[in-house]
Amino acid sequence: MSGPRRCGSRRPAVVGDNTNGYVETDPTGRYGRFDELLGKGAMKSVYRGFDEELGVEVAWNQASLSDVLRTPDAVQRMYSEVQLLSRLCHDAIIGFHASWVDLPRRTFNFITELFSSGTLRSYRRRYPRVSLRAVRSWARQILRGLAYLHGLDPPVIHRDLKCDNIFINGHEGRVKIGDLGLAAVLREAGGAAHSVIGTPEFMAPEMYDEEYDELVDVYSLGMCVLEMLTLEYPYSECSNPRADLQEGHRRQAARRLLPGGGRRGPAVHRQVPCRRVQEAVRGGAAARLFPPTRRSLSASCHRRDATANNIIAACCCSLFDRQHQ
Q: What's the total number of domains in the chain?
């Protein structure tokens, strides 16, 4: 793989005061960073930035080299995210613009698309009353993004899909998948990944067996939809989510999706045929609802009603123990 991509060498012509209140600019002067923190993760901070050439706001992602270079895993995670983003192009995947290393400041920087409303998790909590139609729309867009990733040659597994890694522009309801730092590239179609990595509450059980494929992302999508519907973080009732997940404990929030399950979540059971819910709960339903072929997954994205029902049924599947019913 090649190193971080640098911006073009020529600074665009600007009109008026070209400082704009920046605290720093990229090497070409095209991108400027404001002292406005939008978010902070384990590896990087995200600031509001501005692209003078296109006249649009951007997300300026910045990581300290001392943090990035602390461990080989940290280097690989940051490098993988930039390399993957730089070669992906899909309307459901966060857009990438440029990257560079600032040696005087000892920072690694990259520019991505800005989402005015932040993460889907924070947005959902800001607006707790949304219709099932909105959740369907978000889930369908995410599914299209997954179909794109899984359809690449070689396929890409996100491995850390959760509402904190999905971003939204609230004024138009567009969502996109981001944070590909833990993504894995399968070296061949039909191959398997082996590392146990990700967020336990959203991880498919087979990930603990250290041999899995891209369908683990579909399981994670089911958990995302569960959170969208109930406003509950998966396994929030458990003191040790990782242990409980491995032991196959049932999800309390599952009952919110079924008849008589409580008042907080929407009555989604009326939207899913009873037979399909029963199949999902019995076990092994994920393989039937989402056949393990990229062609089937991609095709399902365009079947509006079937996709909505399948996604919701996949939630039910991910809530229950699939081996001990």
A: 2
